[in-house]
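Troubleshooting: if your tokenizer reports a length mismatch, compare your output against this known-good record of 118 residues.
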Amino acid sequence: MEIHTKFKEFIDYLNSLQLKDRDLYEQYAMMKNATKVLDERVKELQGMIADVMLDLGVDKQEFDYGTFSIATRKTYRYSQALEQRENQLNEELENDKQKERESGVATCEEKKGLLFRS
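Known-good structure output:
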């Protein structure tokens, strides 16, 4: 069964939970909480799949529903002197930004958006 069919079945299942009859706010809260659970599970599966692929010694596995690849990401650790310089420059930059905000040189745009906490 292709992934799109499975996803449609999942959406149909969610719709079958009578969410349409619920309050708009409650629908949002339920879906947001469901998303948290799904995201946590995806993170778990991601680690498990990466472990399996590394144990198998493969960098790529292809399936009808998609391709899984092991990606390599470089991270650098710099000298303490360079990190101190970076911190000093960032602090100076933040001070300059604050001065521009206070003097009115900096422009500000406010955007409204929804915030939800459960």
